[in-house]
Amino acid sequence: MIATRLNAVFGPWSDIWLRGGWRVQTHCVTGQARAFDPQGACIAAGEKEICLAAAARLAPSTPARANSHAPRRKKFFGSFFQKRTFFP
What we know:
By secondary structure, the chain is an alpha+beta fold. The protein has a domain at 12-61. The protein has helices at residues 2-9, 48-58, 76-80, 83-86; strands spanning 13-19, 22-27, 33-36, 42-46. The longest helix is centred in the middle third of the chain and has 11 residues, at 48-58.
């Protein structure tokens, strides 16, 4: 049980590239790499350069904001520090 937890925290794979949910990981001992899509499916495995090229080709160049259609909130100080707010 403890070994499983430690392996999850200190696993041999580390992220070297992230974009819009896409990730490329490399193994600290063997140097092998693997690329994952946002759903967690492995799309490439092998050399680091091949995985980076595959992920860069398939991942969107600019990640879309989650709430890009939502209106932006007004700044707090912008509505209170106006002359008409304090003086009639």
